[in-house]
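ARCHIVE CARD
Drawer: 12
Card no.: 0347
Subject: one protein chain, sequence and derived structure
Cross-reference: see card 0346
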Amino acid sequence: MTTQSHTKSTARSLPIALLRARETVMAPIRDMLHDIQLTEQKWRILRVLDELGEVEQSAIAHEACLLLPSLTRILRTMEAEGQVTRRQDKEDKRRSMVRITDAGRAVLEDNLATSLAISNNIESQMGREKLNQLLDLLEELQAVKV
């Protein structure tokens, strides 16, 4: 008996389906980021900071889906590039607070039209209702305890 009789086809495998969907969504975003010489990780960090304001590094790591050691290294580069600022928390000197700068926000604003066009393209092909349903289901999946 082969393992195939015990496992789902890759088309119905949740991890593989999620990876394939991610690649479909990320391909045009990667093209946009390549044109502006920005990594996916930096884009996510800028988006999170723009949305949340000044926050502690662990919150950024969680929201941007990055490991804290990687985030720390990336933030050093982004700080040197003038996209973010970091400071010690006044109450807890061990905590580092980060915020987006005007230069970092400009990166987002300069690419807003392209980013929205990518999102609108996906929505026009799927339909708003299906896309919202997918996002709701993905949020529900994140809450599953495995």
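Annotation on reverse: DSSP finds seven helices and three strands in the chain. The chain has a mean pLDDT of 93.
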